[in-house]
Design brief:
Blueprint (H helix, E strand, L loop, with lengths): L18 E10 L2 E11 L4 E5 L6 H9 L9 E3 L2 E2 L7 E4 L13 H6 L3 H4 L7 H13 L15 H15 L3 E5 L7 H16 L3 E6 L11 E6 L2 E3 L21
Helix pairs in contact: 4-5, 5-6
Length: 251
């Protein structure tokens, strides 16, 4: 099946959390990457997903985004199975997973965030172009719209990926190590945009191996160790929020 072709977008289930994972186990070949992981993320929460490299953070995000096949009953997004509504979930991959040598402009890269709305065989319309323009402005890279992505700095690359996620206009954003090796300007832009997204009611799950350098405000922290969820021994670096300190709970 061609992605996004003829898919029906289901409405959120009333009262359902943004994300619910139930005893999720996932493997690459014969190697287990996640082992019996459960969590619930309320709509509108900002959650840090922490753990060392190889802890299973990326696998979990890919499972939620539909890039890692998992049993349908183990993951629910706004009450629906993964893939029931692609435009509601935006996945921001690590920069190293992108082929930056591909000959496209920043504007074209950001436009790919609209494919879940447009489909592969229709041309983007005015609404799509406006969404891309707004995303470029919010991330501070409007002047780079016509630049080839291979000519971007690391911080500019990260902002371009964030702009693509913004153009999608998703409700749940999954960000894999977005602050890794960023310059101070890009880090500030990223944090400001994420704070604004949460203010607008979006749900954010941000994977990191270093909580101290990942923004300034979290409702809760989910900690993974060797593919398992373990208690987090520190404290979320967050001011009190409407979600309290139990944002990502065990179901």
């Amino acid at each position: 099946m061609i992605p996004y072709a003829g898919r029906r977008h289901l409405a959120p289930v009333a009262g359902a959390p943004a994300l619910e994972v139930r005893r999720l186990t996932a493997a690459y070949s014969r190697n287990l990457a996640l082992r019996d992981v459960s969590l619930v993320v309320p709509a509108g929460a900002r959650i840090a997903l922490v753990g060392a490299n190889g802890a299973g953070k990326s696998t979990l995000l890919k499972a939620v985004s539909g890039l890692q096949p998992v049993p349908r009953e183990q993951v629910r997004v706004y009450g629906n199975p993964v893939g029931a509504c692609h435009h509601r979930v935006a996945y921001l991959a690590q920069r190293g997973e992108i082929d930056w040598r591909y000959p496209v402009t920043v504007e074209s890269l950001v436009m790919t965030g609209r494919y879940v709305h447009v489909g592969w065989f229709r041309r983007p319309g005015r609404t799509d172009r406006e969404a891309v323009r707004d995303a470029l402005e919010r991330t501070g890279i409007s002047s780079l719209a016509k630049r080839q992505i291979g000519r971007l700095s690391g911080g500019q690359q990260q902002r371009a990926l964030l702009a693509r996620a913004l153009a999608q206009e998703a409700d749940l954003l999954l960000l894999d190590e977005p602050f890794n090796a960023l310059d101070s300007v890009s880090r500030s832009v990223l944090d400001e945009v994420l704070t604004e997204l949460q203010r607008l009611g979006k749900t954010l799950v941000i994977a990191t191996h270093d909580l101290e350098t990942t923004g300034r405000s979290f409702d809760d922290v989910v900690c993974l160790l060797n593919g398992r969820r373990v208690p987090f021994s520190g404290r979320p670096q967050a001011a009190p929020s409407r979600h309290g300190m139990g944002g990502a709970t065990h179901p």
